[in-house]
Amino acid sequence: MHLSPDHIVFWEYGFLKLNATIVYTWVLMFVLAAGSKAITGRLSIGLERSRWQNLLEIIVIAIRNQIREVGLRQPQTYFGFLGTLFVFIAAASLFTVIPGYEPPTGSLSTTTALAICVFIAVPIYGIKEQGLGGYLSSYLKPTPLLLPFNIIGEFSRTLALAIRLFGNMMSGTMILAILLTITPFVFPIVMSALGLVTGMVQAYIFSILATVYIAAATSDHASHGDQRAAAPQEPDKEKIGK
């Protein structure tokens, strides 16, 4: 058993390598895209619906509610990005029941790429909500002296996201490999089932942290909007005069 899919090389020519991380990532994306196309291509608005449509609606509603509970008032704006993160990481763990499959999230390169996606998405959504000047000014709060620390925090949390997901996913594989050498075959099967649960938890944690970061980047704009909405409006003097 390999601890990382990077160690499984299917093709190599010079410095070019086609390892299991790349292959299984593209296979996973193809399966998710094809499955989404197949389910959404025959949606029903009647009372009779397929089991796949019911499952899809449960997932969509759960993700939207979670985004709203974190503090983002328009979950449909962020649903595509955050939902894709959750489904990709969750599916990468669920597919481990297939013999010979290695989850691409067990590679540091994959988890780093996912963390970089979050790193790029946070300022994009922040600028979209607050404008360029409003978003950049958030780095000077509560005092301009914290500017270097706020910048360091952007990079450190991206690194923490990548290492956290990689460590948690690889640790399960490592424990399973050790158990296969010292225990009977039945116990590792139980650990594999536990690994599926752990993978779902990691998908939830990763997507929630991404949601929290985006909510923090857009919070200033939302709070100002709430203050304007809650502020009492002055009466129209012309109407009072009439």
What is the topology?
Elements: E1 9-13, E2 16-19, H1 20-40, H2 51-70, H3 75-94, H4 108-137, H5 147-182, H6 186-230, H7 237-241
Antiparallel strand pairs: 1-2
Helix pairs in contact: 2-3, 3-6, 4-5, 4-6, 5-6
Helix content: over 70%
H/E element sequence: EEHHHHHHH
Major sheet attributes? 2 strands, antiparallel
- What percent of residues are in strands? under 5%
Q: Major sheet: order of its strands?
A: 1-2
Tertiary shape:
globular
What is the number of helical segments per DSSP (H or I, 4+ residues)?
7
How big is the Rg?
23 Å
Number of domain modules: 1
Structural class: mainly alpha
Average pLDDT metric:
79
Distance between the termini: 84 Å
The count of β-strands is 2
Low-confidence runs of at least 5 consecutive residues: 221-242
Description:
The chain is mainly alpha-helical. The protein has one domain. The protein has helices at residues 20-40, 51-70, 75-94, 108-137, 147-182, 186-230, 237-241, and strands at 9-13, 16-19. α2 crosses α3 (75-94) and α4 runs parallel beside α6 (186-230). It starts with 8 loop residues before the first strand and ends with a helix. The model is unreliable at 221-242 (pLDDT under 50).
